Amino acid sequence: MNDVAIAVCAGAMRKYLGAKGELPDESLVAMCPISVRPLSGGVDVGNQISDMTVAMGTDIGDPLQRLQAIKMRTDDAKQLAQIRGADMLEHVVGLVSPATASWFFKSAEGMKWVARIKPVCNTFVSNVPGIRTDMYFCGAKLVQSYGLAPLGDGMGIFHTISGFKEQLSVSVTACRSLLPDPAVYADCIRDSFEEYRSLIEDGGEDQTVVYLE
Questions:
Q1: Better pLDDT: 100 or 188
Q2: CA distance 195 to 156
Q3: How far apart are CA 151 and CA 159, in angstroms?
Q4: Is pTM, for the whole model, over 0.85?
C-alpha cells in the first residue's frame, strides 16, 4: 500500500511538471515516515517512527516499471531504517532546545545557512491507516476524513494518504507560490490513480517489466 501511494503521487508530479515543461531528468525524492516498532514490541505506549527517502521514479514513464522501481528502493530503505531505529532522530533533536532552534532558524544568519543547504527531499508522502468504523463528534456522524500537514523550507508539497472505511483520500498541502493551480494537480492525482487501477482491471497483461539492479 505504501509503495502504491508513492507511485500514485509520483505519477501525478510527473504529469504536472511535464505539462509545465519543468520535469527534471532525475527522479524527485520523497521522504516517508515509517514505523520501526518491532513485531514483538509488547504493549509499550507511543509511536516508534523513523523515516526513509526514496527516489519516486518520476523519471520513469511506464507506471508498472515505476512501481517496481519504488518497491525495490523502499525495501532497501526500510532495512536501513530498521537498523538505524527511531532513537537516532530523537537523540539529534534532543541536542538542541526548541527555543534555541526556533531563534536560529528565524534569524538572518539562520536563513542564510538554510538557503545554502540542498533539500533532502522534494515532497513528503505519508500513508496513515484510515478509520475503519463509524465515528461521531457531539452526535455528528463522520462522513469523510482528510489530512493536513506542515510544509518546510525547500519542500513545498505534502501528500497525506488516508481514508475512512472503504474510501481512500489523497490530501495535498502545498505552497501557493509553488503550486498556483491546485485543481490541475488534483486532476493529475486522479489520472495517476486511474492508471494503476486500469492495470488491476486488465490483469497487467501486455505489460513489459524491466528488472532494475
A1: 188
A2: 25
A3: 10
A4: no
